[in-house]
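Work Package 3 (structural annotation) set out to generate three-dimensional models for the target panel prioritized at the project kickoff. During this period the team completed the workflow that converts sequence records into discrete structure tokens, so that structures can be stored uniformly alongside our sequence database. As a representative example, we reproduce one entry of 268 residues exactly as it appears in the project archive.
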Amino acid sequence: MDMIKTTATAVEKLRRQARELSRATGKSLTECREAVALQAGYQNWKHVTACLAACAAAASAAPAARRGQPVRVEFLDEADADPHTVRASATIDGSDAYFKLLEESELAPVVHHPLRGDFFIDLTIEGRRFRAEVVGPNPILEEHGGLHWVQLGACSINRAKQDYPRPSSEFEWFVCKYDNQPRVSLAGLSDAGIRRLALEFGLVIEKPMSAFSYRVHLPAEKFVFERSRAWLALKEWGRKHPRKLARRELGDYLGDWRGRIAGELKKE
């Protein structure tokens, strides 16, 4: 079986096409997935998932070698009028140091709620309730009662313009997919609240903010997520749900996260 270069975005597009075809024709989703796979040049849907897994594994191998490399961070004085004025600098190591910076910054209080079902994080920050849940092959982040959600491992915190349901010309903080597609609005949260959210859910803050301004080159979002306390919470979910963990479902952005968590649990 020939391998075709396949990205999570391409597979998500094929899934969407299959759903649309199923609604239009009344055929089963499985049958429609096979049809769109053939149309895209694959042998069948299993071929699609096999190519995605192979490409994800190849992508993982290269960045993994870079995770421990020093990255340069420039700390900025909160009182500086010019956000590009460098106060001090240091060389630190990637994801772990990023979360250490977060932990040492001013953080809003957090209230953790009992976990039910497939939720592995459920908390309230400044009156807003955010949750992380395993839905099908993907761990996702959502606001309780909100309209939108986003897959963990493909998102970060950034400033963007709201495009739905009411388009806005003003920039505000969002949890964004692919760094720039606004998904979960953080309007109303203080900077300390946003930093707390980033720490709890394993998210990179892309833009400087008061008391937490930095410039750092980190690995891709999924590698940062796997070094976070959110990953530990997901591992606890796997410990409590071994049968669900054993399902052979590849995540759209985290690849075989179930297999990696199972491997970590076996070593404990």
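DSSP finds nine helices and ten strands in the chain.
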